[in-house]
Amino acid sequence: MRIPRLLFVALSLLLAGFTGARGATVCVKAARMIDGRSGQTVGPVVVVLDGERIGRVLLGPQVSQAPQDARTIDLGDATLLPGLIDCHTHLSTEPGQTVADKVKLTPARAAIRAVNHARATLEAGFTTVRDVGGYELVDVALRNAINAGEVPGPRMQVAVFALSITGGHGDPNNEFPYFDHFGGMNGVADGPEEVRKKVRFDIQQGADVIKFMATGGVLSTGDSPGAEQFSFEEMQVAVDEARRAGRFTAAHAHGTQGILDAVRAGVRSIEHCSYLTPEIARLMKQKGTWDVPTRYVPESLLVPGNPMHLTADRLAKARDVAQHTSESFKVALREGVNIAFGTDAGVFPHGTQAREFAIYVRDGMTPMQAIQTATGRAAGMIGWQDQVGTIEPGRYADLIAVAGDPLKDITELERVKWVMKGGAVFKDQQGK
Ligand SMILES: [Zn+2]
User: Fold this and answer.
1) I need a surface site. Which of 94, 207, 209, 281 has the fewest CB within 10 A?
2) Average confidence (pLDDT) over 386-413
3) Domain boundaries 24-82+392-428, corresponding CATH code
4) What's the pTM value of the predicted model, to 2 decimals?
5) Residue 95: which residues within 8 A CB-CB, separation 6 or more?
């Protein structure tokens, strides 16, 4: 019994470190700031904290008004930004899992890995994520542990089980004959009444957002990304049931018909949105539907040498999606569709998702627009615009810093040097 006790003491001391000391006012000073809302870089800046929130933001000559007795964190010639938001992660998921790995995986093992994924994500500068499909309530447990200050990680909105048709993108039994099917719960639901029941179940178990698979996907056996899966009627029920419980709905949709029906059904966001047409983009703009484009994930699957050991079938699907997703992104941008940053981290290693930014810029966004998709705009999409996403009084003190100017080199966001969440510093690599 002695070792666990010692471990517990060590862990408690560690945790005491990152919850931070309370007392003196803390100020964060930097040469430049991108606040997540305005289109300008401003500076110098001093952000005066009020506990875990932002109290005041002092700009230019106002920085001399910073409280004299404050403890100041001087970030020097850095650019301060709001903590980043990834609207599409799977923190319960480990990249590159084989079928055999999945059969052997226990919820306990997945949860321990997820703790590391959460820390990697936070240290990469992502202080908020919307986690759109978990595994055996690992997402709920992780969210609650982070909120309780037990482990470091981003603020999370979680989806519990992503809903899927039998044989669809989210059916864990696709790879097995029926007599070897997993027992227990999953997100499979067929017909409006089963969909309704599964949405209610997810909410009962702790879902903040409802996710469903409107079309097939890349990393599922026996389906096609282009093919619609849920019917329009089933999607309508999912959206309606989630709405009455005060939850937004996210639809995984690659193919055109699935995107169209999910938009018509009233979802908050289309995930992937790979085969988009100008007509549907205009409907999305009209209805205020968000596009979460996940541009980096097909590239991550198509790395030369196939390091993830994907089957030929999956590689072919990834290639086809990769060919269409760039044009779909440009259509969305041209038609003025709301775009929120999302990556599908978990398919590729957690903490590397900032590579998504450079792809947005390559395909036509300004660096400032790209940053806004992961800050103020993303916060609006997930309904947390009063909490996170901008550097303004009243928001959580979720701040990050990069060296230099990310508007000149957007890949600076892949090298976040300093991370604060809720007023506590979780990473400090200034000057490294
Ligand atoms: Zn996903």
Assistant:
1) 94
2) 97
3) 2.30.40.10
4) 0.93
5) 308, 346, 347, 348, 349
Query: In the predicted model, what is the mean pLDDT of the chain?
Result: 93
**pLDDT bracket for residue 22 (50, 70, 90):** low
Spell out the domain ranges in the chain: 24-82+392-428, 84-353
Distance 417 CA to ligand 1 centre (A): 27
**271 alpha carbon to ligand 1 midpoint, in Å?**
8
Does residue 20 come out as left (phi exceeding 0), alpha (psi in the -120 to 50 range) or beta?
left
Three state DSSP letters for 214-252:
CECCCCCCCCCCCCECCCHHHHHHHHHHHHHCCCEEEEE
Q: How far is the centre of ligand 1, averaged over its atoms, from the C-alpha of 43 (Å)?
A: 37
* Alpha helix (H) residue ranges in 272-311: 278-287, 296-301
Which residues form the catalytic set? 211, 344
Query: Which CATH number is 84-353's, of 3.10.350.10, 3.40.50.300, 3.20.20.140, 2.60.40.10?
Result: 3.20.20.140
Per-residue pLDDT of 183-214, as tens digits, reads 778 999 999 999 999 999 999 999 999 999 99
Least Cα distance to 400 among 21, 32, 131, 3 occurs for 32
Residues with C-beta atoms within 5 A of ion ligand 1: 344
CA 67 to centroid of ligand 1, rounded, Å: 45
